[in-house]
Amino acid sequence: MLTGWEDIRTEVLRRISGREWLPGASIPTEEQLAETFGVARATVNRALRELAAEGVLERRRKAGTRVALHPVRKATLDIPVTRLEIEGRGQRYGYRLLLEAEDEPPPAIASRLGLAPGVRLLHLVCLHLADGRPALIEDRWLNPAVLPQKPDFHRQSANEWLLAHVPYTTGDIGFSAANATAEEARLLDVPQGAALFVLDRTTWEGDRPVTCVRLAHAPGYRMQTLI
Amino acid sequence: MLTGWEDIRTEVLRRISGREWLPGASIPTEEQLAETFGVARATVNRALRELAAEGVLERRRKAGTRVALHPVRKATLDIPVTRLEIEGRGQRYGYRLLLEAEDEPPPAIASRLGLAPGVRLLHLVCLHLADGRPALIEDRWLNPAVLPQKPDFHRQSANEWLLAHVPYTTGDIGFSAANATAEEARLLDVPQGAALFVLDRTTWEGDRPVTCVRLAHAPGYRMQTLI
């Protein structure tokens, strides 16, 4: 018997993968499916919404629901605080602030934050360690206007401070690979040119730019999720 | 006036970021919030579910809903078919099959797929091109049991064939950085050691292993999403 929305989701996937419902084709209405499966319409609705969020179905007001022609697989990544990510692997966390200075950001960063030339930001560079070994370099430009009182960044990383004090930002995040510069190689204690996994992020709180950060991970790092 | 669930979500976020509701603290019940906001309980429920999915709230049966102590930011990534990703950037797509052979996979891959030693798989290596330039190398091990009839992999990449014929797989996906080997450097026409963004994926259809693939992207690639 199909009872929960998860069962309905599984049955819909079965019909699609069994090519009973073909890519691009319309599927029955929620009312029809509720009757077929003997469940409440809300249960069908929940299952179809999940499948639409996963990219399997396309839902259009009035036009009904279709099987996606080119399903785009979606993967959800957790982006935890660096300290918790390291401790979550069972490693001892360490942290060293390397630079704290007010400065004019490079044009590329000013432009990503939508700042006029000449605006000064707080520039923070720090090293996160796992079991005493360098794990990643955090290079951050921070809008001083978001700091109510100046935190002691020698004690707590901006990464962690921001999540506790300016937690609900919007923005964009990117993942790429880069060869370690001479400076990065020295800080991470790896050969120059080693391939680093880089996460960059620009965030806003409403209309106000908050921060632009680059996290360069030591070789061997792998970001993982289920699909 | 607060009317839709999006308004309720925004108001809940405002109370959390304004520290009216503190990290770790319980928030009022759905009934209480519905009365406060003058909306249906289902509307409050929808907003709280979204915030729980985003990691902002923690919901426990009986214990009620709390503000997360360490909110984990979640980012959703689209993993499209390589051809559509390249065409979506407005570039001309090209494809070259470099190897198609039945072979025993390396132990690491056999183990990821849960295969006994000695089982043979189809090994496919191909190059995807954007505007005639190498964009990424696809190195794939494929379970021949998922192929009803043998596709012509010279005409269509396994990447695309699988999505059309074995679309609803589960599995895991990882992202990392790697220095280009001599062979990868030759195929991508980049210096040996260049930093490549690597996506690896292992998928299953029910209990049956489907494929283990490594996509090594030419330097400059950036995978991006909104948070």
UniProtKB/TrEMBL annotation, chains A, B:
<feature type="domain" description="HTH gntR-type">
    <location>
        <begin position="2"/>
        <end position="70"/>
    </location>
</feature>
<dbReference type="InterPro" id="IPR028978">
    <property type="entry name" value="Chorismate_lyase_/UTRA_dom_sf"/>
</dbReference>
<dbReference type="InterPro" id="IPR000524">
    <property type="entry name" value="Tscrpt_reg_HTH_GntR"/>
</dbReference>
<dbReference type="InterPro" id="IPR050679">
    <property type="entry name" value="Bact_HTH_transcr_reg"/>
</dbReference>
<keyword id="KW-0804">Transcription</keyword>
<dbReference type="InterPro" id="IPR036390">
    <property type="entry name" value="WH_DNA-bd_sf"/>
</dbReference>
<dbReference type="InterPro" id="IPR011663">
    <property type="entry name" value="UTRA"/>
</dbReference>
<dbReference type="InterPro" id="IPR036388">
    <property type="entry name" value="WH-like_DNA-bd_sf"/>
</dbReference>
<protein>
    <submittedName>
        <fullName>GntR family transcriptional regulator</fullName>
    </submittedName>
</protein>
<dbReference type="GO" id="GO:0003700">
    <property type="term" value="F:DNA-binding transcription factor activity"/>
</dbReference>
<dbReference type="Pfam" id="PF00392">
    <property type="entry name" value="GntR"/>
</dbReference>
<dbReference type="GO" id="GO:0003677">
    <property type="term" value="F:DNA binding"/>
</dbReference>
<keyword id="KW-0238">DNA-binding</keyword>
<dbReference type="Pfam" id="PF07702">
    <property type="entry name" value="UTRA"/>
</dbReference>
<keyword id="KW-0805">Transcription regulation</keyword>
